[in-house]
User: Fold Mitochondrial import inner membrane translocase subunit TIM17 from Chanos chanos.
Amino acid sequence: MEEYAREPCPWRIVDDCGGAFTMGAIGGGIFQAVKGFRNSPAGMGHRLRGSMTAIRTRAPQLGGSFAVWGGLFSMIDCGLVKVRGKEDPWNSITSGAMTGAILAARNGPVAMVGSAAMGGILLALIEGAGILLTRFASSQFPTGPQFAEEPAPMPSPSFGDYRQYQ
Assistant:
């Protein structure tokens, strides 16, 4: 299963890091805004100030964490594409498991195995959902009748003695 819309590997890594940082910063900013708003003292001014403080202090850290995860995942994915010589869902699943294990390496082997399992399961669910969505979408648009490569010659109609018209 080829993914033609993807960029070549060196540029994919850079693109995934930037995209992961942006998505992490935006998602982290929204999450921290709600968290800061809820945990601030009563009063709209205090809550808005607490919300902005939480965004400023924590959103860049979350964005950086997502960028590290995205960059490491892309590097492993590109390495597997090069080693295996093909690009399929198994590369992404394996990359997710290896990324989880590498990022949990400081916490010991038990944490590595747990993070690897969670990374692999998460990426397997994402890849499976993508495959199902692709199959469902492709079944919505039929391709039409399939023609043979070389059409068979049509038999000449027999209208009696047609030599008279020659």
Remarks:
- The helical segments are 9-39, 44-84, 89-103, 109-140.
- The chain has two domains: 7-86, 88-137.
